[in-house]
Amino acid sequence: MASYDVMPDVGLFQPATVDDALRLADRFLDEGWLLGGGQDTYGWLKDRAKNPKALIDISHIDELRGIRKTDNGVDIGAATTLREIIGDASIGRDYSLLVDAARRVASPQIRNVGTLGGNLVQDTRCWYYRRGLACYRAGGNICYADGPQAMNREHSVFGASRCVAVSPSDTATALVALDATMTIRSADSSRTLPAERFFVGPATHITRMTALEPGEMLTAVTIPPTWAGKRFYFEKVADRNVWDFALVSIAAAMSLDGDAVADARLVCGGVACTPHRLKGVERAVRGKTLSDETADAVAPLATKGAKPLNYNHFKLPLIENLVRRALRG
Amino acid sequence: MNPQLSRRRFIKTVIASSVAAASHNSFPVAKAHHVGDGYVDRLITIIVNGKKRRVDVMPQETLAYTLRYKLGLTGTKIGCNRGECGACTVLIDDVTNYSCSTLTHSVRTRNVTTVEGVQSDDGSLHPVQQAFVDELSPQCGFCTPGQVMSAVALLRENPNPTREEARQALSGNICRCGAYDHYLNGVMRAAGQRS
User: Secondary structure of chain B: what % helix, strand, coil (to 5)?
Assistant: First the structure.
């Protein structure tokens, strides 16, 4: 397939309100494309690997921007930029996990325009898929990344079902760890989903990575006060410190009762099609003191049931080591 | 021969009508839109380096394309055209952006600053540019406009950065010559921390 370096012919709408945007999304459905910062979008278009008829630019809609404290925690509009989140004092104080994750996204220029919503709903980086090949995820009937000669160093070790692509989002792991709620709107309805159920694996929906139906829009993310100011740990391992996506990342939120862990949520990125919760580790660490001994004892639980591919066995010790670093005293 | 139909006039007419036909066919969405639903107009005004510029912009046009090929501001380079190299970095409302990955229509109400717009009114170089010259920062020079813009943005926000902060601020700009440390020397000189 040829690669082009210029933008294809595509229509552009800049609706003034969310309602107008949703009406357009409803009108175009699969042929419309909601545009936030556009940093994931333009590559798809320039490669002609996705060919929407209309871009619906929602980055300027005021209702979708900004960070507001409410009784239920903090509401972050989906078109709020990562730069705004990184610079927000209250998020930095209460939910530094999200700031640490957002800080590690791509490059400064991309964080300056990239939106939280865009970072959450961005498509996977599997290069076979992004090249425009007719794989399962693109509606075909083969996976190019899971074969004897496939290059799958970056692919999944958990939860594969035909497709072995992984979730690329850094903020998604943090928001699942913080037990955030996603608000989703369409032209005639509105619903909310816990972050964990917002991201869907290939067994549920092989052609998309989120629960968003055509015509729906992620409008806001709500972080509950449950984990405000608790102990957090975020680390992302990638080949490069800038631009690159996580080989494995970990986002951990822990509440302590004295020295002991009262509750914990640990989430890995880059290892499954969705942010992957380490429930075995979470259960095992409850009631224990954070220490090297605890970390060593529970870390092996993180990779139970993992099914590595030809070139990504290295992810298993990497996952366990990140868990150790999150849990040592 | 009919003086109204010279050869030149005939050719001009043919070109104009085929352009009209082509632009008519290439935007099926535009034909279907209703007034007031937010479909963008082609003739817009953008503010570049403090000047209002009227320009005819396609819906899908990137800012890098508009700057270089419509406004003649070729100081902004297109390297990868994928938001991966930083050569096209410009400031939009004082914040660095990849102009190859920004739609021109999205900057209508905002201030765009390109490398042509950082020198002072009398034509002398911006302190960052002068410091890059003094420190021999560029090697081949292709990434330099982008490096200048990232450094200018950093010093506007943080006039006294540490070398590590400068490193972070310039981390979205690739230099294939590998002159990173020379650029950092330049930033530190521009910040008055190196002479």
Answer: 45, 15, 45
Confidence of residue B20 (pLDDT cuts 50, 70, 90): very low
pLDDT one-digit tens code per residue, B28-53: 555 555 557 899 999 999 999 999 99
Q: What is the pLDDT of residues B166-178, one digit of tens each?
A: 999 999 999 999 9
Min Cα separation A297/chain B (Å):
37
- Our CA-based measurement puts residue A11 at a distance from the nearest CA of chain B, in whole angstroms, of 6
CATH of domain B127-190: 1.10.150.120
pLDDT at B8 over 70: no
Only one residue has tokens 């999150």, namely A326
Q: What are phi and psi of B155, to 5 degrees?
A: -70, -25
DSSP A312: -
CB atoms A113 and B97 under 8 Å: yes
Which burial class, exposed, middle or buried, applies to B15 when counting CB atoms under 10 A from its CB (0-12, 13-18, 19+)? exposed
Domain with CATH 1.10.150.120 in chain B: 127-190
Task: Please answer whether residues A144 and A150 qualify as being in contact, where contact means their C-beta atoms are separated by less than 8 angstroms.
Answer: yes
Q: Are B65 and A13 in contact (CB < 8 Å)? A: no
Q: Which residues of B touch A83 (CB under 8 A)?
A: 95
Instruction: Put the strands of the sheet holding B51-56 in their side by side order.
Output: B51-56, B43-48, B111-113, B89-92, B95-98
pLDDT in the model for residue B118: 97
Class of domain B43-117: alpha beta
User: Scanning every residue of chain B, which has its alpha carbon at the shortest distance from the alpha carbon of A57?
Assistant: B106
> What does residue A230 show for φ and ψ, rounded to 5 degrees?
-80, -175
pLDDT value at residue B10: 54
**Which residue intervals of chain B bear CATH 3.10.20.30?**
43-117
Return the structure tokens found at B11. Answer: 């050719």
**Å between B159 CA and nearest CA of chain A:** 18
CA–CA separation, A109 vs A111, rounded Å? 6
User: Which residues in chain A are closer than 8 Å to B96, comparing Cβ atoms?
Assistant: 108-109, 112
pLDDT (0 to 100) of residue B23: 46
Q: Between vectors from CA B84 to CA B83 and to CA B89, what angle results, nearest 5°?
A: 55
Give the DSSP letter of residue A77.
Answer: E
pTM of the model: 0.92
This complex has an ipTM of: 0.94
Percent of chain A with pLDDT over 70: 98
Interchain proximity B106–A14, CB inside 8 Å: yes
Taking residue A189's Cβ as centre, other Cβ atoms within 10 Å add up to 10
